[in-house]
Structures are given as structure tokens and as C-alpha cells.
Write a structure and sequence with these properties.
The chain is mainly beta and about 200 residues long. About 10% of the residues lie in helices and about 40% in strands. It folds into three domains: about 30 residues, no CATH class; about 100 residues, Immunoglobulin-like (Sandwich); about 60 residues, 2-Layer Sandwich (Trypsin Inhibitor V, Chain A), CATH 3.30.10.20.
Length: about 200
């Protein structure tokens, strides 16, 4: 097979494997690139802790605000908690995994707040720092399929959701686990929103 034909076959294979991603969002080795979809606080000061949501974040090895590297943790496959590094202006937020770097899109930028100079009546100039906007707490619905009820309840609570009605068989043998949930994983609802569950063996 010629080199050109091999390249065409590889491109077709990548397209079939990842139909939801654009050609620019699929790494050369066929793995999908990580993608940032939402930043809980789109503006703030250096040193603030913010949540970054997206797709394919479990394998992220680096987070950058513009050209500045940020320290971070990955508590969930779709969430990163990063410490904002020093910087200024509006910069893209980029995450990197073994597959490559995320592509900057809508919802993947961060704006640094700048100090505001205020002159008093005695002509003494003081500097007041703008405060970081407080992120709105939401129920970020997790995927609790196949979890036991106690574990599902704990995970829902950690994501600011509440356990709604639970349906389970009257008679059963074995361990009950979640087979369906009323709200889809990834949805953002009001804090304390009820998520119904169905259990089965």
C-alpha cells in the first residue's frame, strides 16, 4: 500500500472512531484531545482556586493560563481545580494530555482583575483590589450508574445534588446497584436539585 493511501485510511479510521470531534480536535495518534467547555469563574486574581470543566480531563498533565503554568488537581474526569498563576489581561486556558493540547474555544478564556486606584479627599492614593466573583454553586450531576445506593448518595452530595426518589424491586437476591438516573451526567442544575435513581441487581 502506498504512503498516500495509508494516510487516507488512517484519516478515515480516526473520523469513524471520533465522529463528534472535528479534525482539529483529534490527535495524530487517534486519541481525542482534551477540551475545556466551561470555567466556573471566568475572571479573578492570581492565587484564586477555580474549577475548570470539560471533556477528557482525566489524563491532563498540564494546565496553562496563557503562557503561565498552573498547579492543579483532577477530582473528577470532567473537572479540574486549578490555582490561577500570575498574569494579566484576558488569556486562553489550555490543558494538555498525552494526546496533545486542547483547542481554545468559547468558555476557555480567563480575565485577570486589575487593581483600581482610588484618590481620597486628602489626595492620598490607595489601592483597592477587585474581589474575585463568587462562583454560583450548582448541582453538577455526576454519573452514578453501577454504584451502590450509599455510594451514589455520597457522590451526589459531593456534587451539590440531593438524592430524590429511589425505585427498586420488591424481591431480589444480590447487591442492588444504580441502573438509571433521572438527570443526565454533566447537567448543571440548581444546588440541591433532586436526582431520582432506579436500582436493580
Amino acid at each position: 500500500m502506498s504512503g498516500v493511501r495509508k494516510g487516507v485510511v488512517a484519516l478515515v479510521a480516526a473520523t469513524c472512531l471520533y465522529p463528534a470531534a472535528s479534525g482539529a480536535e483529534v490527535a495524530l495518534k487517534g486519541e481525542p484531545l482534551p477540551r475545556v467547555t466551561y470555567i466556573a469563574a471566568a475572571s479573578g486574581e492570581a492565587g484564586a482556586s477555580i474549577s475548570i470543566y470539560g471533556v477528557g480531563l482525566a489524563g491532563v498533565t498540564a494546565v496553562r493560563f496563557g503562557t503561565s503554568a498552573a498547579s492543579f488537581t483532577t477530582p473528577w474526569p470532567d473537572e479540574i481545580i486549578a490555582i490561577v498563576p500570575p498574569g494579566s489581561g484576558t488569556v486562553p486556558v489550555v490543558v494538555e494530555s498525552p494526546a496533545g493540547e486542547s483547542i481554545v474555544g468559547i468558555g476557555a478564556e480567563f480575565s485577570y482583575l486589575v487593581p483600581v486606584a482610588v484618590t481620597t479627599a486628602t489626595t492620598t492614593t490607595t489601592t483597592e483590589t477587585s474581589r474575585v466573583p463568587v462562583p454560583v454553586v450548582q448541582c453538577h450531576v455526576p454519573n452514578v450508574l453501577h454504584y451502590k445506593l450509599a455510594t451514589a448518595r455520597r457522590v451526589l452530595s459531593e456534587r451539590h445534588c440531593a438524592l430524590g426518589s429511589v425505585t427498586k424491586p420488591r424481591r431480589y437476591r444480590g447487591t442492588l446497584r444504580v441502573v438509571s438516573q433521572g438527570a443526565s451526567a454533566g447537567q448543571r442544575l440548581a444546588a440541591g436539585a433532586l436526582v431520582t435513581l432506579k436500582l436493580a441487581v
